[in-house]
Every structure is written in C-alpha cells, then in structure tokens.
Amino acid sequence: MKKLYPIAALILFTACGGGSKTPQQDSTQVTASNSSNTAAQAAQTVQNAGAGDDNLSESVNTRETIDIDLDGDGRPDKLSDILYSKQQEAIWPGYPAGMDYEMLDSITWENQIFTYYVSNIAGADTLKFALAPSYGSFYFRNIGDLNDDGREEVGVIANYMAPSNLNTFYVFTLTADKKWQELHSFGINKMLNMEDELLGKGVLFIKKTGPKQAKYAFYNQKEDIFEIDTATITFK
Fold first, then answer.
1. Of the candidates 194, 175, 195, which has an alpha carbon nearest to the alpha carbon of residue 183?
2. Which of 21, 56, 64, 184 matches a 20 to 30 Å C-alpha distance to 100?
3. For 62-113, how does the pLDDT look when each residue is reduced to its tens digit (9 = 90+)?
C-alpha cells in the first residue's frame, strides 16, 4: 500500500537512482597526512564567529565502523567511514567545537570534504561515491547478502551539505578482485521512509525476500503528490 503526501508538505531537492555499475572513481589516494594546520584555521574561524553548538561538532566528528563479511570468507571484516579533504589531500582531522550549520557548510565546502569508506582488507579499493561534499553518513549498514554470492552488501546514504529530505540509497558489494560495484540505487525521502512501514516494522529501505531477490521502498513523485512505493529487484 502506498502513502501519499501533498507537495506543499515537503522540501524539494534532487535525487537520483540507477542500476548496477562501478562507483565513480577519482585519482585521490587516502593517506594519513598531517592536517593540523587546517584544523587550527577552522577552529579560528569558529572562535571569531562566536559560540555555536558543541553537539553538532560532536555529531559530525563521530565516525562509524560496521562488521560485514565483504570477501565471503565467513568472518566479519571492518568497514569505516572517513572524512577526506580534497583541498588538503589528506584525511580531515575533525571539525572544531562550537560550530553552527553555516560554519559547518562553509568549512566543508572550502576544504572540499568528502565521505569515503575504507575496509581492513589488504588491497581493497576505497569506496567513493558521494557526488558533492558531505560530512559522514545518514545511513550506513550491513544489509546482508542480497545476491547470494557469499559476500555481504553495504547500504549507505551520504549526509550531504545543506541536507534535504530527498537523497539516494546505494547498495554496494566488494567484488572478488577487491573493487566496489554498485548493485542498485534508488531515490528516497528520508522523512517519509523513516515513518513508513511498507517493508515491515523497523525496515526502512530494503530487505531480502528470496534467493537473489530484494524488495525496496523508494520515493516517487507524480504531479503534485509525493508517495513511497515498493518494487522488487532480482540480482544476477
């Protein structure tokens, strides 16, 4: 059953979907270079502007690590999100305390901070899919082995600057040659998906329904009506 919502009740932004493909790559190499000078400059910006919200700073500085069997050996691997500054060509050391959202967006944009995902598997590629600067993940979970190849997939939504209710949910898998592959993606509305139960209680975006098959809840707009609908995908 669908849920319908009038257009006036929601915030508009752009969202995109797609099929199975390799994530967009860039030549950036993730390193642990020292970025203390950059951090000091960002802290000075906050100090000059006055006090903000320490809870915001703590939130965007909190990194996530999930247990997930990426290589299919039956043992959990580790996958973590990191913040990387393309401007500084180094891992971002952390945002200063006392920021507000305007400062957060300014620092993120000026330093071209993107969210990347790294595993503890030797030689594995870094997952890079964000289309714009971002500060972490809105959703980052092990969603199980959807295509029955023995490897578990990761479901992820980037936490972009100037966040909107509309975003894209991605399903990625690590291939046998340690490259990331996008199995599926679809548009979502964070507010509506979070309150919807089309996939069952507590299931927000996608769930396995059978061999090589999953059902997902996606955002759809028809004329002046928003709706959350469901569809089924069969993986090859």
1. 175
2. 64
3. 999 999 999 999 999 999 999 999 999 999 999 998 899 899 999 999 999 9
49: phi then psi, degrees, rounded to nearest 5: -85, -15
Token pair for 6: 């009038």
Give the C-alpha distances (Å, rounded to integers) separating 54 from 58, 59, 95, 148: 6, 9, 10, 44
C-alpha separations of 230 from 12, 20, 36 in Å? 21, 18, 47
Tell me the domain boundaries of the chain.
Answer: 3-234
Q: Do residues 189 and 136 make contact, with C-beta atoms less than 8 angstroms apart? A: no
Rounded to whole angstroms, how far apart are CA atoms 154 and 172?
A: 5
Average pLDDT per consecutive 10 residues, the chain (236 residues; last block may be shorter) = 40 39 53 41 42 73 95 97 95 91 93 96 95 92 96 95 86 97 94 79 90 93 76 94
d(CA 133, CA 83): 10
Structure tokens at 206: 């996608």
Tell me, what amino acid is at 174? L
Lookup: tokens for 38:
């950059």
What is the rounded CA–CA span in Å between residue 146 and residue 211? 8
